[in-house]
Write a structure and sequence with these properties.
Helix 2 runs parallel beside helix 3 and helix 11 packs across helix 12. The protein folds into two domains: 94 residues, Roll (Urease, subunit C, domain 1), CATH 2.30.40.10; 311 residues, Metal-dependent hydrolases (TIM Barrel). Strand 2 and strand 3 form a beta hairpin. With 440 residues, the chain is an alpha/beta fold.
Length: 440
């Protein structure tokens, strides 16, 4: 058994002082507040938070950071630049880039990531000798860094949707497609869960899967968690309504995909009827505030969803920002801007969205809490930095940034100690990966 002691920790009941955390076989066996440190405790300085979940990531979008933000346009013009990066990726460059991106996530305090993975095949849509070579690159990258991964293997069959119907795949999108749901399922069935990896499923969007395929996909996913981009842009809603007479949420529900294992990513433009569908199913909506504002997608109805008892989680999406505290604050601050009211979410609600709800949405139902029996995943945030000095421990979410994370423990194992990782320094790792990609 290993024991840790921290002067402060955020427990399910709220902030507590003098907390001892006893860990055995990768899980908490005791979490006890108001304790003095023992001689054999590993002492942590600052406040311990439960492991933070990155509920929605596209690792390769990290290559666009600092290169698209001042070019004007909208999501659709940004997507063309993203496709240019997708053209250049192969299993080797994907592994190098994902390893660096997952390392950046770990240093920021993320302990699990949901990778929304749709870049499956070689240029022209030709399968690699290993049909899961690209997915295996992501799995290997997460294993190397020590972060938990849910690989949300994505089904992508059509090029888009207008009021006249679905379009064919373009020259880049053919890399994303298995051709049909049966082929997608056959490929994904070759992947398997491990102690640190879950294999989930994703329908890219109602733009990318026609109605009949969505129904078939719903039958194929089994008990996997299922994610989908939903109502990120108004154009998607208009097209779905025009062609199907249904909102994206309504269409996904009609095809059987909206359950308590379903996560709608973004949900920026969901309406009252959609919220009712998601609430009755016990679904989750994953907000990605830094991406949604960068791409001018809008501000989704987070509090309305929460009040309807829809679960909320958070993700970094395009990874233009990798900082869970920015996503947490974004959820609250966007609400303040739209309502002119403060404290739209309690600190406890924000912690849950960033941890336990995100873990559950990724299929890790026993993670994201400092509690006996839970996975021993946690992070330590310093309280004496330029950003956090003077903060009350229970309000550190409003002050901290990724550089304030000092220690990360996953499954009871210390993978970041005093901001040191076995792959340090991380910066050259990322620079080399980006150079490799641009020279590919």
């Amino acid at each position: 058994m290993t024991t840790y002691w921290a002067p402060h920790a955020y427990l399910p009941s709220g902030p507590a002082a003098g907390v001892r955390l006893a860990v055995e076989d990768g899980r908490f066996v005791r979490v006890t507040p108001r304790q003095r440190a023992h001689d054999d405790d590993i002492r942590l300085d600052g406040i311990v938070l439960p492991g933070l979940a990155n509920g929605h990531s596209h690792a390769f979008h990290r290559a666009l950071r600092g290169r698209t933000h001042a070019d004007g346009g909208n999501f659709w013009t940004w997507r063309e630049v993203m496709y240019a990066v997708a053209r250049r990726l192969n299993p080797d460059t994907y592994l190098a880039l994902a390893r660096a991106v997952f390392a950046e996530m770990l240093l920021a305090g993320y302990t699990v990531v949901g990778e929304f993975h749709y870049l499956h095949h070689a240029p022209g849509g030709v399968p690699y000798d290993d049909p899961n070579a690209m997915g295996e690159a992501l799995i290997q990258a997460a294993h190397d860094i020590g972060i938990r991964l849910t690989l949300l293997d994505t089904c992508y069959l059509a090029g888009g949707l207008t009021g006249h119907g679905h379009s064919d795949l373009d020259e880049v999108q053919v890399r994303f497609s298995d051709g049909d749901v049966e082929s997608w399922q056959s490929r994904v069935d070759l992947l398997h869960d491990t102690d640190t990896v879950r294999i989930g499923a994703a329908a890219h969007s109602v733009r990318a899967l026609p109605q009949a395929a969505l129904k078939e996909f719903g039958e194929a996913v089994g008990q996997r968690v299922v994610h989908a981009h939903v109502s990120e842009q108004m154009a998607e809603d208009v097209a779905a309504q025009a062609f199907y007479g249904l909102t994206p949420t309504g269409l996904l529900s009609e095809t059987g995909l909206v359950t308590d294992r379903f996560t709608a990513v973004h949900g920026t433009n969901v309406g009252d009827a959609d919220i009712g569908i998601l609430a009755r199913a016990g679904s989750t909506v994953c907000f990605c505030p830094t991406t949604e504002r960068d791409l001018a997608d809008g501000i989704g109805p987070a509090r309305q969803l929460h009040d309807a008892r829809v679960h909320l989680s958070l993700g970094s999406d395009q990874n233009a920002v990798i900082d869970p505290f920015e996503e947490i604050r974004g959820l609250e601050m966007h609400e303040r801007l739209t309502t002119n009211e403060r404290v739209r979410f309690t600190t406890g609600e924000l912690v849950t969205a960033a941890s336990a709800a995100g873990y559950a949405s990724l299929g890790w139902y026993d993670g994201g809490a400092l509690a006996p029996g839970a996975l021993a995943d946690f992070v330590t945030v310093r309280l004496d930095s330029l950003r956090t000095a003077g903060s009350r421990p229970g309000q550190v979410l409003y002050a901290a940034g990724a550089p304030d994370v000092t220690d990360v423990v996953i499954g009871g194992r210390r993978v970041l100690t005093d901001r040191q990782h076995r792959f340090d320094p991380i910066e050259p790792l990322l620079v080399e990966a980006l150079d490799l990609l641009r020279g590919a």
